[in-house]
Structure formats: structure tokens, C-alpha cells
UniProtKB/TrEMBL annotation:
It comes from Rotaria magnacalcarata. GO terms for biological process: carbohydrate metabolic process. This is Uncharacterized protein. InterPro entries: 6-hairpin_glycosidase_sf, Glyco_hydro_76, MUG_Protein. PANTHER family: MEIOTICALLY UP-REGULATED GENE 191 PROTEIN. Signal peptide: none annotated.
Length: 290
């Protein structure tokens, strides 16, 4: 059922052949991938199974397979902003409304079995990014229910008809998974300082490298590669795009390819401006200075 993209299709089918004399189709005894929809929950439920089986058999190859599936899901079953997308969106049935939450839950189950710091941080950050997007854009203030969309989708309003107990249950799966990954995030090189752009106590900004239309994994990887980085902020835009700004002590000559340098007067990051749809992450080794 795992296809060439490391995604799991909807199921298996058995090719049939026509028996001329009996005038009916007969099963030829083989099962093949049906090449149908790659639902997010199918990508999720296998992750915890592979993790448990790997732990029971001491077979690390199974963890590698799980990481391939999770990586492909994050790459291929998401919006350009990096937010999880169900193939049926914008119109899903009552079962499909639950699928993304199932993926989030089982991705969280996988995390404790990983030893690769990069993937631990990548998956924890992915879950957190989705939770922030959902919590800040798609919760109906009238009844507290969450919408089908986790992305800030132009087709969606926070109180549209796609919200129900199923979509809200899916949202809770995501939030609980984020809460359970807190320990993994504590070992990260970066910590969430707060909602909004990264600032200093006088509301001034540091010099920075910035780039539009970029996912957060690349944003953080670029910040990791910059020896002068102090913090970065990542913004989800209303049109579904995203924006990354790396606050840095490096000069303009060290600007990464494809990025733009912007001057600033601040020399550190100590607070945020509480701007919505934006998170500021502080480099943990820079905290020793404050």
C-alpha cells in the first residue's frame, strides 16, 4: 500500500480476469495497491504501529520507514504554508473530518521512539505550527467549535458550516499531541518566545534576513546555519503564504542566497509585539545573555 512517494493509498484491490466459459470474473489471487486517495489518517495510524514494532523487535529500519511516511505527508499533503490538508478539502464527510487529527495524534505517538534530534524537532514544530494556525484563525467565537480547515484558507470563515463536533474532535487531537510533545521541544535549539514579531524592550527590531513563500522547516534550518542568528519569526499570511525573518548579528555580506537583508537598530530579542499569525522563536544559547 506504500506508493513510490512513500504515501499510503486507500487500500488493496485484487485484479480480476474474465472466465469465458463461466462468463464471470474470477479473482487471480493477488493483491495490489489500489492507487486511490492518500488520506492523512492512513499516513498516521501506521506511524505508531511501526514505532511499537521497532521497539519490540529492535529493528531501526521500521523507524526509518515511519520517518519517510511522515516526511512525505508533511511535504505532499500540506498547503504551501506547511499546514496539513485533507485531500477532500473543502468538502469532507463526517468520517473524513476526523482524519487530520488522527494523523496528528499518531505523529505525536511516534516522537518518543525517535533518537534523531532533527526529526524530533521537525515533527514537534510541524504540530505546533498547525496548532497555532488552527487556534488563531479557525475557531468560531460563537460556539467554540473548530473548522475543518487548519490553514487560513480564503474559502473558510471561522464560523462557517463546516465546523462540527467531528472537526473539533480532530482539533483536540492536534492540541493534545502538541501538549504531549512539550518535552521533546524542551531539548530544541529554539524555544517559542511568544506570539508576534521578535523585538527588544524598546520595540526595536534587529537586523535580519527575510524571505517570502517559505516553509518553517527551511526557515529554521537557515537560522541554524547562520552563526549570528539570535531569533526568528515566522508569519502565516491571509493568502495562505508564509514569511520568515531571521534576527541576526551577522552583516549583509552573510545574507543567504535568495534572502534579503534588512537593517535594524536592536542588538537582542527580549519580547514580541503580539502580532497575530506570527510566532517568535528564540535561540536557546542566546538566552544566556539576558
Amino acid at each position: 500500500m506504500i506508493n513510490s512517494f512513500y504515501l499510503i493509498n486507500d487500500g488493496l484491490s485484487s485484479p480480476q480476469r474474465l472466465h469465458i466459459k463461466q462468463r464471470k470474473y474470477l479473482n487471480n489471487g493477488t493483491c495490489v495497491n489500489n492507487n486511490q486517495t492518500t488520506w492523512t489518517y492512513n499516513q498516521g495510524v501506521i506511524l505508531s504501529g511501526l514505532a511499537l514494532l521497532s521497539n519490540a523487535t529492535n529493528n531501526s529500519t521500521l523507524i526509518n520507514i515511519a520517518q519517510h511516511i511522515a516526511d512525505s505527508t508533511i511535504e505532499l499533503l500540506t498547503y504551501s504554508s506547511g499546514i496539513l490538508k485533507e485531500p477532500c478539502e473543502p468538502k469532507c464527510d463526517s468520517d473524513q473530518n476526523l482524519f487530520k487529527g488522527i494523523f496528528a495524534r499518531h505523529l505525536g505517538y511516534l516522537l518518543p521512539y525517535l533518537t534523531d534530534t532533527f526529526h524530533i524537532q521537525k515533527y514537534a514544530l510541524f504540530l505546533q505550527q498547525n496548532a497555532v494556525s488552527l487556534l488563531t484563525t479557525n475557531r468560531c467565537e460563537l460556539d467554540g467549535l473548530f473548522d475543518l480547515f487548519w490553514n487560513n484558507n480564503n474559502l473558510s470563515t471561522s464560523c462557517n458550516l463546516s465546523r462540527n463536533t467531528a472537526t473539533t474532535s480532530s482539533a483536540f487531537d492536534l492540541f493534545i499531541s502538541v501538549a504531549n510533545t512539550k518535552q521533546q521541544m524542551l531539548s530544541s535549539k529554539w524555544i517559542l518566545l511568544g506570539l508576534g514579531n521578535c523585538m527588544d524592550d524598546s520595540n526595536s527590531s534587529m537586523a535580519n534576513f527575510y524571505k517570502n513563500d517559505i516553509n518553517e522547516t527551511i526557515c529554521r534550518a537557515t537560522a541554524n546555519a547562520d552563526n549570528g542568528s539570535v531569533a526568528y519569526d515566522y508569519e502565516l499570511k491571509c493568502n495562505g503564504g508564509a514569511f520568515c525573518r531571521i534576527r541576526t548579528l551577522s552583516d549583509r555580506h552573510q545574507t543567504p542566497d535568495g534572502w534579503t537583508y534588512e537593517d535594524g537598530i536592536a542588538h537582542d530579542v527580549t519580547r514580541t509585539n503580539k502580532m497575530s499569525l506570527t510566532n517568535c522563536y528564540l535561540k536557546t544559547d542566546s538566552m544566556e545573555r539576558y
